[in-house]
Predict the structure.
Amino acid sequence: MHNDLREWIEKAERIGKLVRISGAHWEKEMAALAELFCNKKRLETPALLFDEIPGYKKGHRVLFHELIAPWAIALAMDFSPEYESLIDLVRTVHRKIEGLSPVPVKIVDSGPLMENIHQGKDVNLLEFPVPLFSEFDGGRYIGTSDCVIMKDPDGGWVNLGTYRMQLHDEQSAGLYISPGKHGRLIRQKYFERGLPCPVAVCLGHDPLISLFAGNEVPYGIGEYELVGAVRGKPVEVIEGPETGLPIPAYADIVIEGFCFPGDNRAEGPFPEWTGYFGSSSRAEPVMRVKAVMHRNDPILTARHEIRNKSFDFRSLMRSALLWKELETAGIPEIKGVWRYEQAGTRYFNVISIKQRYYGHARQVLHVAAQTAAGAYAGRWVVVVDDDIDPANIDEVLWAMGTRCQPAMDIEFINRSRSTPLDPLCFDKEKNYYTSLALVDACIPFEEKENFPRATGATPEYIQDVYKKWRALF
Ligand SMILES: Cc1cc2nc3c(=O)[nH]c(=O)nc-3n(C[C@H](O)[C@H](O)[C@H](O)COP(=O)(O)O)c2cc1C
C-alpha cells in the first residue's frame, strides 16, 4: 500500500488516471479545468496535477481532485478499481471499515515534511499557488481538500476534519467549521476557557487521510487510528514545533498555529457541496499561522465542488459509515445504503433491508435519520426491500411509486440538525434546523406473502444468464 501522496500519485499515473497540466493560472483557470474534466469524463475523471503556475516557482504544484472518482477511492484504500455497480463499491468499503481495530499513531523524530521549515516572520502562505475558484468567492481558498488536526483539551483524543480555509494574508487564514462539527466543539472548549486553540492543517497529504477526515466519524473516535487500521500500520507523525500536535511526517505541506477567542474576520462566500454558494460573507475565526513545513517541490491538494456530479467519494464513505452505524445500533439485515451525490451526499439517503419483523422498516428510518453519519443535513430517508438496489434511482422510484402509501408511510421529524450552508436555512445566524421525511417504501410486512409478484426473471436466473452471456454486454 502507498505511504504518502507521492506514492499515490505514482499509482494513479500508472493506471492512466493522472493528467499533468503546465501553465494554467491559479486565478479561476485551474478550477474551470477541473470542472470541465468532471463534466466530460464523469466516472472516469482523472486527478489533475498543475505545475508551472504563473507567478510561482516550477515544482510548487497543485493537485486537484485526488478523490474524484471510484478508481481514486480504490487506490486510496488499496482495493481493485473494478466494480459492477455503486452498491458493490459500498459493500467493499463497508467490509473494509466494519470491524476495524484502531491503530495508534507512531511518533517519529523527522520526516520528509521537515525538508523546509519556516517559522515566525518567515511564514508566507503565498509561497503556494493557492487557487481562486470563481470571481464570486470571498477570496482564494488554501484549504479545500485539507485535514485540520485538533486535540480535545479534556479527553486528549485527536480529531481530523476537512474544513474550508480562506487565505486572508501571508500569515493568516479563515477556518470555517459548521456548528456541531467536532473541530468546532473542540475549538469552543478552548475559547470558553479563554485559551487559544492549537491547530495544524495538512494541505497536501495521503488521500486515505481525507477519506476519514472529510466524513462523519463518530465523536471521540480518532480518524488517525482508522487510517492506521486500513493501512495495517500506524500513521507516522512528528510533533509540531509550535503546537505539539501530531502531524503526518510524510505530508507535503502542513501549517501550524492558533485560533484566538474573539479573533474573527469576514470569510466566504464559497461554492459549496449543496451546489450553491453556501453562505454570504460572515465573521469566522482566524488561524494565525506560526509555522509552515513543506517538502521540496510541495503539492497543495484542492477540491472544487462541482454541481451535478456523477460521483462523490463522500457518497461512498458516508454510505459505508451509515451502514456501520445501523449495524452497531443492533439492527439486523441491512443489505445496502446509498447517499445520493446529486443531493449533496446528505439530503437523500436510501437503505435496503430484508424485513424480518413488524416495525423493522420504521426502526431503520428513525435510527438512520439520527446517527452521527445521517443526522447532519439529512432531508429524506427512504427504506426499501432487498430486491431494490438503493443506488439505482430507477428502482428506488419504482418502490416509492408502488409500495408506499404517502398518507400512512411518510413520517416527519421537525427541528432536525442542519447547517447554515443549507439553502433552505434562511436565517444564517441561528435556527439551523431542517425537517426530515422518513419514507417507508417497503412492502407492508403483513402483506409480504400476498403482494403481487414483480415482473421479470428471478434475480438468480438473470445472474446465471448474465454470467453465461457476459461477453454480449
Ligand atoms: C472537500 C470537503 C470540504 C469540506 N468542507 C467543510 C467545511 O468547510 N466546513 C465544515 O464544517 N465541514 C466541511 N466538510 C465536511 C466535514 O469534513 C465532515 O463533516 C467531517 O465529518 C468533519 O469532521 P468531524 O466530524 O470530525 O467534525 C468538508 C468535507 C469535504 C470532503
Notes: Residues 102-298 form a domain with the Pnp Oxidase; Chain A fold (CATH 2.30.110.10). The longest helix spans residues 313-328. Residues 144-145, 159, 161-164, 176-178, 181-183, 214-217, 303, 314 surround flavin mononucleotide (CB under 6 Å). Residues 379 and 436 are 4 Å apart (CA to CA).
